[in-house]
Amino acid sequence: MLTYTIRRLMTAIPTLIFISLIIFLLLDMAPGDPTAQLPLTIPPEVREQIRQSLGLGEPVHIRYLLWLKQMVWSEPMFYLSQSTGWFDPPEVARLISWQTRAPVMDTIFERLPQTIKVVGLAYIVGVLIALPIGIISAYRQYSVFDQAGTFVSMIGFSIPPFFSGVLMIILFTVMMPNDSFFWFPSIYDTTLVVDSWETFGKQVRQMVLPVMVLALQTTAQISRFMRASMLDNLNQDYVRTARAKGMTESVVVLKHVLRNSMIPVITVIALGIPSIFGGAIITEQIFKVNGIGQFLIVSIQASDVPSVQTLTFIFAVLIVLFNLIADILYGILDPRIRYD
Amino acid sequence: MTDATAPKGDDTRADAPARNQWWDVWDQFKTHKGAMFGAAFFIIVILAVYLGPYFWTIDPTYIDIRARNSGPTLAHPFGTDQLGRDMLARMMAGGQTSISVGLTAMALALILGTLVGVLAGYFKRIDGLLMRTTDLFLALPLLPLLLVMVMLFRQPLSASFGPETGIFILIVVAIGITSWMPTARIVRGDVLALKEREFVLAARSIGTRPGKMILRHILPNVMSPIMVSATLGIATAIITESALSFLGLGFPPDFPTWGRLLFDATDFMQQHPERVMWPGLAISLTVLSVNYMGDGLRDALDPRIRGL
Predict the structure, then answer these.
(1) Complete DSSP assignment for B129-147
(2) B72-106: per-residue pLDDT in tens?
(3) Does B16 touch chain A (CB under 8 A)?
């Protein structure tokens, strides 16, 4: 198991370095000058100094290495020392956003809780709905329930979040009477402090719509996958053996078949986590959740290169990390995988 | 395409006339109701969007400020927007862009994916390198990178090709080079299996060169996975383009696409919810029909299911 894990780690690290290089070069070679927006009255030599202070004077490979060091060493060390207090913070400049003039990572950490709350909850809800649907669809293949499940997941695949979100707002915010129980706010209020049952209720209500939109997509994908995986296993010999031994149907399906079919599904669930962060960019925009997706859009619109670089790098790290987790989980759950 | 595969499927029965593989595929495809509906709907959408403007001759950019914000009437069956532009004409113009982007980006992704897949499957020496590259691309955060690409290259491209063509090229290329990976993987797997078959050995033994071999023997036999990923590719390309437009990073505002129309309509969602519905339904139903088409095609092209 250890060699398997090490082997997977060895492929993850070069991938990450290569992706960071792509992200860095894409933004670095882009046309456009960060000092272009500054007033024309600034003398050229001062402008040159501003460029130097933004770190634009060095050759490309030096800047890439400095940026990489900043991303993987200086910034984590800063937060480590701040949270534990074991050693002094490193003596380096923080990565500053061109837009807010604040350290990029601080802004990201401010916004991360909102994203994790909404996206994480949506993912859990989606998976919890998807698994039973997948199991029943496979067990009763071609039944009315299965046909309906196929249709709903087809819809989940086909309706993009920017339409399902807007549709939800029309249904539950615009058309619904304001005093109805089923009226939900369309704007996510981040300043809400949860300190009583009333505010807790408010918090739950404002999370309903974005969570529903995100969960629809997760449900569509994972229920299909669960169904396919269950179907693969239901026709296996060991199922017939279990039935022949006289086991009850629930034991056969929920213990023998389910456990074996969960192996690929769990890896798919792990693989889907980073892509949900990507999909959340649109959902956050619709419901005005000020999470990291919305931060990315704002930074892109303001040509804020450090923030965009950091955010895309974080998304890339998430993808590589969860690929790694999925691989290792697969190895733990299915010992055959380790020895290929 | 049809000629090259004809000898493979001619299992002439005693009374049946000689038919090739694609007739069997079509017979199987016809039994899938959802797929038939999907195909019919997709063809109707394409006809409506490309031929519709010849029958509905209102200019989509014509501003009739007195008729602004009108609901569905006889003069404007889909209503008008906040500047009095006819929504039906705008929907048709938007559909042209959205579907053109979808088809072109899909074609680009297919060509790239097939090229990489065939080369990696056929030539063992570059297999490792090409597949590592594919894995790397799969690990990229695609939506953020698409947004970044559009942000960075919008100005220079619209300066050199004009605002419409420039953005069209940019979006098609951006979607194309971020969605070829699944095709490449599937094609590589099929090519690897095909390479071990006897007819390839036979062809090689009479001295067929690799280029000829790929074009005449390998490519016609990997057509089925390519066609399935083509349908799925159209769906994802249409959704991606609409997402970019919805985030305000797609085509310029006066140049309608379905995503852009949806984005513009969200500001007036409270007063005129129907204006959101038209483009939203158009995107969703087109993608749904294409997905059903892909589903039916996959069943029809799978020889284990076909002929049952």
Answers:
(1) HHHHHHHHHHTS-HHHHHH
(2) 777 777 777 777 787 888 888 888 888 999 999 99
(3) no
**B239 in reach of chain A (CB within 8 A):** yes
- ipTM confidence score: 0.80
Minimal C-alpha gap between B136 and chain A (Å) = 6
Chain B residues with CB inside 8 Å of A170's CB?
269, 273, 276
Contact B140 A27 (CB under 8 A): no
CATH 1.10.10.10 is right for the domain spanning A111-333: no
Where b means 16+ CB within 10 Å and e means fewer, B78-90 reads: bbbbeebbbbbbb
Contact between B249 and A315 using a beta-carbon 8 Å cutoff: no
B102 at the A interface (CB within 8 A)? no
pLDDT digits (tens, 9 = 90+) for A50-89: 777 766 667 778 888 888 888 877 777 777 777 777 777 6
Per DSSP, B102 falls in state H
Closest-CA residue to A220 (of A152, A287, A119, A271): A152
CA distances from B126 to A16, B75, B301 (A): 22, 61, 29
Cβ atoms within 10 Å of A188's Cβ, excluding its own = 23
A157 contact residues in B (CB cutoff 8 A): 235, 287, 291
